[in-house]
């Protein structure tokens, strides 16, 4: 019995340990990992009954291979003493290893039919060679990691299929399916590396994103069918077909010839080498969208793609997990080795470092981590030296790590160990396929001369920016002591140099030409200030060339990471957050000496030359975000996606760690921090947060047992309300700068309450119109109503924050169940005389109707919307009103943030409900009520609108016609009928 096995294990383990040869130091370290600092493994049973996975994890932390094998042997000996089966591979006997698995049902007959072939061998006849020998099973963590990598590979094809379906819908779905089957059956083999059939995932990704294939297999066929439909029975090859508009069209295509790529140009066919195509098509490379010599085309072109889709922009910039999944497998193996070495170094410091991130790491530990990185990456000892006196980042180590990871951003080591980083004025910032390429706002270098800017100074000239009357912004001039203190602090850290005169500056620059920017002080929390160098007023930003657009992680990305990790265990209990802040941020990156002439400011009689990135230069966020994104990618490589996730918003990373033991979570946090510290990154320890509740990007993340709750602090709600009220108090036109600021804050809040976007879109439109005209104010016009609704929303949210014990409407909970199909469904319909709806509990076929309503259109309805009874002109209005009435009736029966599916057979009402806008005044009025009602009620935050065919919507249709003599359907016999209250002013009041 189990009790007898337990009693057999109540024997002192010391004798067995001595006989097998496990030394005291190893045993103490093992006990510390398995039992904690205050307990020891005293008996055979204590060791035998520990889960084999926990023992394996502890054994992996032992340095000596011999000691690892002896501890494994001791573990299985103890298990045998207690009557348990062996668990370790190194103690498994040969006979046991060859023991066949029990035959499945029907396998004996198959074996008789095919001789001695096993199922796996039979499959290899038809698929590819598969080893029929035994193999170790994947661990749960390894399995989850494999799933994440597989999802990342298939996401490329899935997104393309979804895009095609969005365009062509059900009508041409067969074309999409056929093309997908062709791609998997034959096309994918063309993308396998020569002689290497193991990189199937890479081959699939490249085949799934081959634009020319999908264009030929889907787009062309669709265009041919559409052309045949529009031309009746006329053949598409008929040369007498009319040529509309006098412009030629390519045969079998709906696009004009001048809008098509020339396929002959891609291969360099005779007559298609110049800039002009004899057939009127575009002579541009299909991959990079540029004209250049061979090789060209999706597969052959070696240039970087210019479209965000080809760059996988979302994967490489916003999500560190998806980015590392695109790196070669060898880099994951290498960084796992680095992780194991760092964990061995960090482990002795675990007990001493009680406050992770809130106190500096021991320099001896950080230096040992640097040595470990150099050893694993086969680097030279000099790699850990500081190579740029103006930056604490160690470029030699960055180069070792980037080369080992095969990372894309190979320019960063040159920025950190060479002359410094470019800022896009005199030296270009070359894109590295990290962020989407976007040079739409980059200036033409031939149209603007740097030395003709308002802040430029040349030989023998005295610009207004440099005369004796030069003044900085009022915020800096009014606080001269504070401004000078900040400048001296920057100088002490090597971030800038201060000169007493212009002559000293010219001597340092080795040039009499430079651009002077004005200084300003921006307030920070705690009464502090940040130095801002305004490159816009000096004209510097007009000549900065930024060829990439920064993509930063969103709150939704951090939410998805939490749901992914919690899904591994079924709860949020094993998760813990760590939020740190990179100190000095932009100042960590030194600027190339050739660009120093653009890094000059003046305060009083002093000239200041900044050696690092300035706050206020247009390119500074791009350069720094490439560095910080690379640091997070490298740190993410240390652990699999099921152990740890990292998101970094500029200089503010948030780390989510998953482990059963708090000690293991602490170890992983310190491993990442020491890894970053070894690279030279400095932390703001006073801003560090650790635990189940942290603040990141202004939002509060709180981990509970069953849900992750995201909320906006009350002070931010109050600030948005006050800013909106101040805009509303202005007359017809409002100042553009505070309006843009208000829109940005509301846009950030819409990460939690997406219904705010319904009122935000008209305001953004007004901002865009005013900016395009170069005006400093905007005419709100009809958008003033949207501003009123937002002010009303924030006022209500503030009142709910003040109510004791209540969750305010800017707080949202995410449960694991939110990824499952909704358990609650509402089906509605409307006729020309009434509305009806049914509430279902359950999923799919097992859904049961529990309540329903059916009500006739009242006089108040007809007067409010100007409709006529029996007329179909207002059908869409009644359909949308049915949705609003159903939610009002049953919202009290829903849980906070629970997923609710809303079905209707009206495509118009579905579109208006999802987009929250329409050209119809009546529909807009209902949409605004719906949006604000959902935004103010946590129970309505997860509405999922779906279409149902009219022939399948018989229950709700009958209910909407009860006043016409229809009967309640028999299927609703067990459901409860709910009476609708009068829809007067009180009903529509919020």
UniProtKB/TrEMBL annotation:
<dbReference type="Pfam" id="PF00078">
    <property type="entry name" value="RVT_1"/>
</dbReference>
<dbReference type="InterPro" id="IPR043502">
    <property type="entry name" value="DNA/RNA_pol_sf"/>
</dbReference>
<dbReference type="InterPro" id="IPR043128">
    <property type="entry name" value="Rev_trsase/Diguanyl_cyclase"/>
</dbReference>
<dbReference type="InterPro" id="IPR000477">
    <property type="entry name" value="RT_dom"/>
</dbReference>
<feature type="region of interest" description="Disordered">
    <location>
        <begin position="294"/>
        <end position="320"/>
    </location>
</feature>
<feature type="region of interest" description="Disordered">
    <location>
        <begin position="226"/>
        <end position="253"/>
    </location>
</feature>
<dbReference type="InterPro" id="IPR052055">
    <property type="entry name" value="Hepadnavirus_pol/RT"/>
</dbReference>
<feature type="domain" description="Reverse transcriptase">
    <location>
        <begin position="503"/>
        <end position="701"/>
    </location>
</feature>
<feature type="compositionally biased region" description="Low complexity">
    <location>
        <begin position="303"/>
        <end position="312"/>
    </location>
</feature>
<protein>
    <recommendedName>
        <fullName>Reverse transcriptase domain-containing protein</fullName>
    </recommendedName>
</protein>
<feature type="compositionally biased region" description="Polar residues">
    <location>
        <begin position="230"/>
        <end position="244"/>
    </location>
</feature>
């Amino acid at each position: 019995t189990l009790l007898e096995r337990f009693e057999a294990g109540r024997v002192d383990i010391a004798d067995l340990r001595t006989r097998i040869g496990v030394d005291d130091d190893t045993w103490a370290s093992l006990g510390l990992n398995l039992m904690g600092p205050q307990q020891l493994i005293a008996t055979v049973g204590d060791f035998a009954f520990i889960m084999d996975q926990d023992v394996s994890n502890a054994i992996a932390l032992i340095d000596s291979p011999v000691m690892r094998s002896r501890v494994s042997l001791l573990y299985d000996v103890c298990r045998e003493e207690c009557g348990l089966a062996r668990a370790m591979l190194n103690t498994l006997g040969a006979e046991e290893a060859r023991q066949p698995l029990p035959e499945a049902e029907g396998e004996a007959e198959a074996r008789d039919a095919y001789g001695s072939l096993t199922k796996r061998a039979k499959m290899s006849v038809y698929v590819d060679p598969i080893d029929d020998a035994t193999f170790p099973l994947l661990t749960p963590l390894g399995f989850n990691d494999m799933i994440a990598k597989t999802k990342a590979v298939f996401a490329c094809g899935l997104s393309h299929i979804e895009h095609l379906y969005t365009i062509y819908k059900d009508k041409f779905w067969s074309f999409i399916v056929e093309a997908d089957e062709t791609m998997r059956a034959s096309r994918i083999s063309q993308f396998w590396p020569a002689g290497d059939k193991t990189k199937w995932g890479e081959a699939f990704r490249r085949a799934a994103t081959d634009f020319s294939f999908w264009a030929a297999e889907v787009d062309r066929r669709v265009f041919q069918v559409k052309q045949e439909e529009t031309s009746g029975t006329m053949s598409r090859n008929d040369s007498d077909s009319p040529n509309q508009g006098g412009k030629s069209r390519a045969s079998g295509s709906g696009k004009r010839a001048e809008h098509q790529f020339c396929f002959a140009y891609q291969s360099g066919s005779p007559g298609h080498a110049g800039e002009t195509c004899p057939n009127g098509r575009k002579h541009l490379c299909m991959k990079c969208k540029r004209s250049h010599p061979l090789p060209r085309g999706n597969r052959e072109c070696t240039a970087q793609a210019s479209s965000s889709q080809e760059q996988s922009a979302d994967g490489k910039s916003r999500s560190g997990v998806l980015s590392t999944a695109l790196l070669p497998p060898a880099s994951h193996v290498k960084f796992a080795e680095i992780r194991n070495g760092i964990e061995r170094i960090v482990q002795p410091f675990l007990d001493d470092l009680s406050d992770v991130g809130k106190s500096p790491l021991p320099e001896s530990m950080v230096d040992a981590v640097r040595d470990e990185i150099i050893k694993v990456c086969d680097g030279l000892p000099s790699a850990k030296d500081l190579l740029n006196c103006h930056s604490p980042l160690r470029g030699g180590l960055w180069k070792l790590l980037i080369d080992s990871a095969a990372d894309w951003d190979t320019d960063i080591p040159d920025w950190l160990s060479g002359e410094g980083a470019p800022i896009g004025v005199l030296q270009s910032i070359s894109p590295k396929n990290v962020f989407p390429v976007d040079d739409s706002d980059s200036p033409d270098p031939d149209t603007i001369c740097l030395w003709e800017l308002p802040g430029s100074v040349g030989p023998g000239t005295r610009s207004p920016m440099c005369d004796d009357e030069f003044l900085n912004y009022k915020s800096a001039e009014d606080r001269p002591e504070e401004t000078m203190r900040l400048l001296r602090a920057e100088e002490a850290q090597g971030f800038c140099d201060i000169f007493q005169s212009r002559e000293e500056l010219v001597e340092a620059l080795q040039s009499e030409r430079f651009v002077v920017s004005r200084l300003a002080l921006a307030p920070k929390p705690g009464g502090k200030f940040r130095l801002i160098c305004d490159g816009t007023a000096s004209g510097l930003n007009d000549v900065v060339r930024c060829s990439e657009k920064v993509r930063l992680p969103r709150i939704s990305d951090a939410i998805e990471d939490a749901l992914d990790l919690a899904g591994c265990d079924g709860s949020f209990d094993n998760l813990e957050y760590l939020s740190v802040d990179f100190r000095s941020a932009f100042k960590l990156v030194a600027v190339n000496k050739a660009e120093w002439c653009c890094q000059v400011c003046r305060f009083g009689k002093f000239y200041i030359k900044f050696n690092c990135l300035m706050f206020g230069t247009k390119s500074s966020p791009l350069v720094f975000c490439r560095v910080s994104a690379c640091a997070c990618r490298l740190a993410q490589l240390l652990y699999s996606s099921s152990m740890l996730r990292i998101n970094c918003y500029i200089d503010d990373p948030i780390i989510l760690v998953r482990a059963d033991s708090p000690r293991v979570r602490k170890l992983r946090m310190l491993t990442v921090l020491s890894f970053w510290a070894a690279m030279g990154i400095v932390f703001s320890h006073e801003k560090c947060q650790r635990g189940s509740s942290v603040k990141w990007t202004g939002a509060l993340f709180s981990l509970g047992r069953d849900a992750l709750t995201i909320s906006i602090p009350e002070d931010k709600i109050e600030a948005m309300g006050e800013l909106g009220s101040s805009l509303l108090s202005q007359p017809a036109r409002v100042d553009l700068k505070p309006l843009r600021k208000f829109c940005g804050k509301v846009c950030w809040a819409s990460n939690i309450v997406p219904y705010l976007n319904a009122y935000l879109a008209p305001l953004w439109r007004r901002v865009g119109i005013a900016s395009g005209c170069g005006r400093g104010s905007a005419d709100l016009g009809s958008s003033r109503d949207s501003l009123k609704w937002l002010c009303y929303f924030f006022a209500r949210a503030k009142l709910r924050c003040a109510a004791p014990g209540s969750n305010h409407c800017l707080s949202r909970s995410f449960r694991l169940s939110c990824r499952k199909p909704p358990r609650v469904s509402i089906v509605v319909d409307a006729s020309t005389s009434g509305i009806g709806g049914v509430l279902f509990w359950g999923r799919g076929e097992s859904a049961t109707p529990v309540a329903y309503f059916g009500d006739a259109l009242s006089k108040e309805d007809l007067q409010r919307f100007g409709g006529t009874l029996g007329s179909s002109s207002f059908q869409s209005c009644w359909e949308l009103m049915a949705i609003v009435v159903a939610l009002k009736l049953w919202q009290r029966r829903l849980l906070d943030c629970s997923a609710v599916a809303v079905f209707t057979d009206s495509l118009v009402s579905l579109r208006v409900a999802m987009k929250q806008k329409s050209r119809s005044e009546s529909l807009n009025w209902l949409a605004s009520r719906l949006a604000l009602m959902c935004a103010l009620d946590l129970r309505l935050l997860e509405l999922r609108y779906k279409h149902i065919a009219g022939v399948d919507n018989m229950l709700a249709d009958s209910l909407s016609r009860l006043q016409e003599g229809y009967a309640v359907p028999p299927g609703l016999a067990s459901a409860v009928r709910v009476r609708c209250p009068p829809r007067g002013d009180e009903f529509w009041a919020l």
